[in-house]
Amino acid sequence: MVLGADAIELDVHATRDGVVVVHHDETVGTHQKLPIAELSAAELKRFPLAAGVEIPSLAAVFSAIGQRAFVYVEIKARDIEPLVVRCIRDAGPRCAVHSFDHRIVKNVKAIFPAIATGVLEVARHVDPVAALVAAGARDLWQEASFIDEDLIARAHASRARVIAWTSDDPEQWKTLTEMGVDGICTNRIGALATLRG
């Protein structure tokens, strides 16, 4: 958005009372780690991200982003797929869902066939494209160091897209771009946007 990002990727969990929240880890707390799934939304307010900054709900994030950027939602907890889908349907954002747990991806597609989905891969499987197809997904989120031209060609032949994660190295960005990746997930948004011109 301001720094030139085309999209935002975020992680979600759900509270005990069914509020989907945006948070990387499944637990909160400094000394005692408490699972988000075991806390109510009200109890979660006791664990701010910073002074005066609460862990946001997915609905609040969708409202803040509006239609200014595409949102990739990584579901990190099992059995919250209906809650996430309801949130997406209520907000109507430009959105896709992905997960390391490919069963979650299949569940989301079963609930909401029209939504775009993706599978996350942290290593190079023998046939990552087959895993993507089996999950009914559109996007292969592949850890950047395991991407090569063959993988991209095979994904594109299956009408899939390859998104590299997480790459913060300009030299790697150049290589990935030359190979034909469809997207790069990075922490260095401004630098990547400047490079892409």
Question: What would your notes on this structure say?
Answer:
The chain is an alpha/beta fold. It folds into two domains: 1-99, TIM Barrel; 115-197, Alpha-Beta Barrel (TIM Barrel). The chain has eight helices and ten strands. The strands form two sheets. The chain has an eight-stranded mixed β-sheet with strand order 2-1-5-6-7-8-9-10. Strands 3-4 form a two-stranded antiparallel ribbon. Strand 6, helix 4 and strand 7 (116-121) form a beta-alpha-beta unit. 34% of the residues are buried.
- Identify the CATH class of the largest domain: Alpha Beta
CATH topology category name of the largest domain: TIM Barrel
The major beta sheet can be summarized as: 8 strands, mixed
Helix/strand order, N-terminal first: EEEEHHEHEHEHEHEHEH
- Mean of residue pLDDT values: 94
Number of domains: 2
Strand tally: 10
Rg, alpha carbons: 17 Å
User: In the CATH classification, which architecture of the largest domain applies?
Assistant: Alpha-Beta Barrel
Distance between the termini: 14 Å
How much helix is in the residues? Answer: 25-40%
Please identify the structural class as seen in this structure. alpha/beta
- In terms of per-residue confidence, which ranges show pLDDT below 50 for 5 or more consecutive residues? none
